[in-house]
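Re: the request from the purification team.
They wanted to know what the chain is likely to look like in 3D before they choose a buffer screen. I agreed to run a prediction and write the result into the notebook, where they can find it.
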Amino acid sequence: MPQEGELSRKFEVFKSEILKTGAVTAVNQAAGSLSSVSNWFTGFEWPNRPPGAEEIRFNRLETDYDFVKTSGVELVAGRDFSRDFASDMEGVLLSNSAVKVMNLQNPVGTRVNLNGKDLHVIGVFKDIIWDSPYHAERPMVINFNRDKGARINMRLNPANSLSRNVELISAVAKRLNPAYPVDIKFVDNLYAQKLQSEKILGILANLFGSIAILISCMGLYGLVAYSAEQRTKEFGVRRVLGASVSNIMRLLSVSFLKMVFIAACIGVPLAYYLMNKWLTNFEFRTSISLTVISIAIAGTTIIAFLTVSFQAYKAAKANPVEALKYE
């Protein structure tokens, strides 16, 4: 929520009271949002910085205590800002990508310089998607600054219902900051908005995919019906000579299922190529599992088999006397 009005100077009071209500398990203030980049800089200095590295862009977030506990970012080394260490007011956290681009072997304890201020690294955290899910973020630096609050971040208590948590937070905010409305946003919703186009694409793909399957089944059913009609006398003769219903069904079904198999051999590589090309738009992406491909092939085969089997059963069960008289 925005740190507006009285909340700017009453943050510690707000934090204390909101924790007492049990609506949240952690509270933190930061200069920017957890879902969008608000600050970037160049000119970061560190020991043995190579020539030209001053042009590397770093994302920056200024925050205070309980950042890791509230945001849920995963530390891989070091620790979060702590009141137990006065020196943490000159501390910074680095992302994995920042450590990599800075070529630091033992980053914790390294002295760095940010905008002319000497600081030291107290922790390293895994890269997070801070801005766009389509590409990896720039190297990220989180430095301590309790005087530049713009957002209040809260981790809700999962033991309570969402509505109850919001109600308790709103009550405290209204009492301490009556001149401003309570504007609570949820980080998962903010990130979902970034993928809205993919959500629409998914809906359209499901819709038109279903229509394509329906049309394909109708076409396949028509081909089977036509083929069965063309071979009516053949089926009659086979029945008279002792062929069973299952033999006739197999005879008619296998030829069409072969075409489905050929179609899968053509369609699966093409679909894999197109899907893989689409996924390359995202730096953080899933892989195309062979299980998904196998399920798609099996599903297609089952749908085709059910479509063919209905007409094949009708042809196989037809009276052979009528079939032999058929012209």
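For the purification team: The longest helix spans residues 196-230.
Please add any questions underneath this entry.
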